[in-house]
Specification:
Elements: E1 2-4, E2 7-9, E3 14-23, E4 27-32, E5 35-40, E6 43-47, E7 53-59, E8 61-66, E9 69-74, E10 77-82, E11 87-93, E12 95-96, E13 103-108, E14 111-116, E15 121-127, E16 129-130, E17 138-142, E18 145-149, E19 155-158, E20 164-165, E21 173-179, E22 183-189, E23 194-200, E24 202-203, E25 211-216, E26 222-227, E27 233-236, E28 241-246, E29 249-254, E30 267-270, E31 279-282, H1 291-309, E32 314-318, E33 324-330, E34 344-349, E35 352-357, E36 362-368, E37 370-371, E38 378-383, E39 386-393
Antiparallel strand pairs: 1-2, 2-3, 3-39, 4-5, 5-6, 6-7, 8-9, 9-10, 10-11, 12-13, 13-14, 14-15, 16-17, 17-18, 18-19, 20-21, 21-22, 22-23, 24-25, 25-26, 26-27, 28-29, 29-32, 30-31, 32-33, 34-35, 35-36, 37-38, 38-39
Length: 394
């Protein structure tokens, strides 16, 4: 690998330095729709890929641009602006999500619903909780009952006796859960047919046709594998942690210390990060302990515990037949980091961040104090408290 002016060049990639680490912000996010959110002195704005401030630092919160508009917060309320910084939907919501497929989830007076890109309410704010639309579906909750709705607001699937809906539709399948003396995961399809029985202690949603699952056996050990959309085991994976597939590769790790995770004296949560899922072992009254309570409590506890549990873990990547194609040599950051985008993944080694391709070749040196996931071919890095931007050209 050699340096040519402002390029790092190898046989596959050219990495153009758009901004050397010189930008003085407290935080810079990933790029979306050509702009990135930035933060300085608790105010948010947006920059372009050259580091130019396009939208002033005047907001109290922000989310990425999506479908031409961004969600921003001002004076305690959320609204939407366009790329010129013009208000397109007034600041009137207590919370608001990004636009997905023409719909955005919003909250007002503790009730949730959906608006379109013009700000018109398309699904009434009647729900206690909603997710964003993924494709044509969203998960909603009202009076403790979870449902999957379509874009007309029609409920197509709701909680059935014996299981509870965990999340939205992914690749035509919905993760379900049963809480009794222990937690069991399975999958149903849109027609409510049970495709994968409630037999796993943890399970990820399907991604690229495969889902990571785990069973606990009699000796307390875990059997980890990936299943296909027929419910059959595609291959076993003898790693402590299994993540979702992205662009044909999935992150895996060994060295996870489950014994270090001990979040409270009232109940024990076995946080099975290999699946990005949660296993609750409530000491008392398990059947009365809802997923909502669990996730709310869990979110307060996991980050510090996970850092300890993953302290000595090593990460690599496998392909869709379970072959280890990138060795276990990288450090834990967050399981959401280790995924490929545009053929590139951000990794951490010896306390520094950089980027590799799908063969494990380093394309941006592992020398930065922080780095974001690649988005739109743009890599945001931090060194000595200053930020820079690279563009990867294929």
């Amino acid at each position: 690998m050699e340096m040519k002016r402002d390029y790092i060049v190898n046989k596959k990639y050219s990495i153009k330095t758009l901004v050397t680490p010189s930008l003085e912000y407290d935080w810079i996010g990933c790029f979306a729709d050509g702009l990135s959110s930035v933060k300085k002195h608790n105010k948010y704005g947006f920059i372009d890929k050259r580091g130019k401030l396009i939208i002033p630092l005047e907001y109290d919160g922000s989310r990425n641009f999506s479908e031409g508009i961004a969600t921003v917060k001002k004076n305690g309320k959320w609204g939407y602006i366009d790329k010129a910084g013009e208000i397109v939907i007034p600041f009137e919501y207590d919370n608001a999500g990004s636009l997905n497929g023409g719909f955005a989830n919003v909250q007002k007076a503790n009730k949730c619903g959906f608006i379109n890109s013009k700000g018109r309410i398309v699904i009434p704010l009647d729900y206690d909780n909603v997710t964003h639309f993924s494709g044509n579906y969203a998960r909603v909750e009202k009076n403790g009952k979870k449902s999957i709705i379509n874009k007309t607001g029609e409920s197509i699937i709701s909680n059935d006796v014996g299981y509870e809906i965990v999340d939205n539709v992914n690749e035509g399948f919905i993760r379900i859960i049963y809480i009794a003396t222990e937690i069991r995961f399975g999958f149903i399809d849109i027609a409510k047919n049970i495709i994968v029985p409630l037999e796993y202690n943890a399970a990820n949603p399907f991604r690229e046709g495969l889902a990571a699952v785990s069973k606990t056996v009699a000796d307390g050990n875990h059997i980890n594998s990936y299943i296909n959309q027929e419910g059959d085991v595609a291959f076993s994976a003898n790693y402590d942690v299994l993540c979702d597939f992205h662009e044909g590769l999935a992150a895996v790790c060994n060295g996870y210390r489950r014994d270090r995770f001990f979040p409270s004296t009232d109940y024990e949560v076995d946080f099975n990060k290999k699946l990005g899922s949660y296993i609750l072992k409530k000491i008392e009254h398990l059947k009365h302990y809802t997923l909502q309570n669990f996730f709310k409590e869990h979110s307060k506890l996991t980050r510090k515990a996970n850092m300890s549990a993953y302290e000595n873990s090593k990460w690599g990547f496998i392909d869709k037949i379970g072959k280890l194609v990138i060795p276990l040599e990288y450090e834990y950051v967050d399981y959401t980091y280790y995924k490929f985008s545009g053929g590139i993944a951000c990794v951490k080694k010896d306390g520094r961040y950089g980027y590799i391709d799908k063969t494990g070749v380093v394309v941006i040196p592992i020398e930065y104090h922080f780095a974001n996931d690649l988005r739109e071919g743009l890599a945001v890095v931090q060194k000595d408290s200053k930020w820079g931007i690279f563009q990867i050209e294929f």
